[in-house]
Specification:
disordered N terminus, five-stranded antiparallel β-sheet, 38% helix, seven-stranded antiparallel β-sheet, 468 residues, alpha+beta, binds flavin-adenine dinucleotide, single chain
């Protein structure tokens, strides 16, 4: 996990950078151990690797200033949003400067007539949606955590709504970024379409801070649906729940959310969120449209579920009931953790073509049972994307090793089915070793060439995605 020791700058170079940042940013600069550790926390088995300092710029010009200083002295840079990424993305294995976007939190403009908004990267998705609510608009990407929009773009995040509204790939129209040289570029724009030139927006979306710091985003907005129906549907098996998902998608029912919880995860949510659901594999669903539309979609889904031995499908349109249900779904990670006090939930995800979903989940359940791990499964199954949450005692090296081996087998299984080693969490440090198996040697060489061209000194979030 730690090639290129050369990336740790000399102590002298680092002192020059830190003294200059301290003078320039005063109380917006910190070397406190607690602040540094908090900016490197990682929800993997990889230990915390803090940066040497954290700086809190307020705009693009200040970010460019910091990047130019770091470039001059070869200091690594780790951009930071809210630190909810799950694969060791914000660790600083070579130290350096963490650039927090916490204070870049302005909603610059909303253009309701064009259905877009311009935001600084530290705005969180919940704050944007609170701001939009009165205008009958919303931003649909919902990774559960109240992540920053810059971090979500950088990880190409998705979540529960992606089956209907797409991922950050589809909902970032344009961005401003500071490249490793300190140069400021604009990519994309407010036009809904452009066929001119290389798509630098999509190159930066998902680049995890390894190609530049995103300092502004233009986002696609959507109209708030007239009616929303949500409900839960129990199934006799995970295979039946997956088959119902596949049938729903294949029938063209425009489901907005379709989420699988296996029996263990339902038990965890019952205990944590005070629900009383039958402890069997369950789908949580949501439909968006007109009153008549959501009623029709709900009924059609109920018929599909019944044909597969599932149900009854109970749905409601009352906001409080829907919110309670989805809060429980969003708390699944913490609910899983609460099942085994002292253990840490390790959330990892894979994605497969939807026709292979049932096989992949079923084989994974067999693997979990054989490996002796406690690992609930939840998934955005409408996209063929699911998460396993092994609950690991970090003080037990055998358990940590068993977890790592399990994740390796999970990835191999997904890739063998034509899938991806991550559907939404990204690469960080933990999934780097799987990239070549997914993309092949040629594509990896192209990725390394892009990294070398845009970041010749390898200062942008080094030790993540590719080693150039
Ligand atoms: C309980 C829980 C549930 C989750 N569920 C989901 C889910 O359903 N779907 C999903 O997709 N994710 C999920 N996640 C993961 C996480 O929320 C996403 O990865 C999120 O997009 C990270 O955003 P952040 O602001 O926390 O980014 P950070 O963790 O701060 O950073 C993530 C990466 O982006 C880089 N970065 C951050 N800001 C910038 C910037 N401005 N410019 C360039 N690079 C930047 C960082 O260097 C790092 O590599 C979940 C996490 C938790 C804790």
């Amino acid at each position: 996990m730690a090639p290129a020791a050369r990336m740790r700058p000399s102590d002298d170079a680092l002192s020059i950078v830190m003294e200059a940042l301290s003078r320039r940013f005063a109380d917006r600069f910190s070397v406190s151990a607690a602040v540094r550790e908090q900016h490197a926390h990682t929800l993997t088995w990889i230990p915390n690797q803090p940066p040497d300092c954290v700086v809190f710029p307020q705009d693009t010009a200040e970010v460019a200033e910091i990047v130019r200083l770091c470039a001059k002295h070869g200091a690594p840079i780790v951009p930071f949003g809210t630190g909810t990424s799950l694969e060791g993305h914000v660790n600083a294995p070579f130290g350096g400067v963490c650039i927090s976007t916490e204070r870049m939190n302005e909603i610059v403009a909303v253009h309701p007539e064009d259905l877009d908004a311009v935001v600084q990267p530290g705005v969180t998705r919940k704050r944007l949606n609170d701001h939009l609510r009165d205008q009958g608009l919303f931003f649909p990407i919902d990774p559960g955590a109240d992540a920053s929009l810059g971090g979500m773009a950088a990880t190409r995040a998705s979540g529960t709504n992606a089956v209907r509204y797409g991922t950050m790939r589809d909902n970032v129209l344009g961005l401003t970024a500071v490249l490793a040289s300190g140069e400021i570029i604009r990519a994309g724009g407010r036009a809904k379409k452009s066929s001119s030139g290389y798509d630098l927006t999509r190159l930066l979306v998902g680049s995890e801070g390894t190609l530049g710091v995103i300092t502004e985003l233009t986002l696609r907005l959507h109209g708030t649906p007239e009616a929303i129906a949500a409900g839960v549907c129990p199934f006799p098996s995970v295979a039946a729940a997956c088959a119902a998902t596949t049938a729903t998608i294949q029938c063209g029912i425009p489901v907005a959310r379709i989420e699988l919880l296996d029996a263990l995860q339902v038990r965890a949510c019952n205990a944590y969120s005070k629900l009383a659901l039958p402890e069997v594999p369950t789908l949580f669903l949501e439909f968006h449209g007109s009153d008549a539309g959501v009623a029709e979609q709900s009924e059609r889904f109920g018929e599909i579920a019944a044909d597969l031995g599932g149900g009854p499908f109970e749905w409601a349109t009352r906001t409080e009931e829907r919110n309670r249900l989805w809060q429980a779904r969003h708390d699944a990670f913490w609910a899983a953790g609460a099942m085994r006090p002292g253990a840490r939930p390790m959330s990892t995800d894979v994605c497969v073509p939807i026709s292979r979903l049932a096989d992949c989940v079923a084989e994974t359940q067999v693997d979990i049972a054989a490996s002796g791990l406690i690992a609930p499964i939840v998934g955005h199954v409408g996209d063929g994307n699911f998460h396993c949450l092994p609950l690991i005692d970090m003080a037990n090296p055998a358990e940590v090793a068993a977890c790592e081996a399990f994740v390796g087998r999970l990835v191999e299984r997904a890739l063998a089915m034509g899938g991806a080693c991550s559907g939404e969490h990204g690469v960080g440090q933990a999934k780097m070793k799987h990239l070549e198996a997914e993309h092949g040697a040629g594509a990896m060489a192209a990725m390394r060439a892009i990294k070398r061209a845009l970041d010749p000194q390898n200062i942008m979030n080094p030790g993540k995605i590719v080693i150039p």
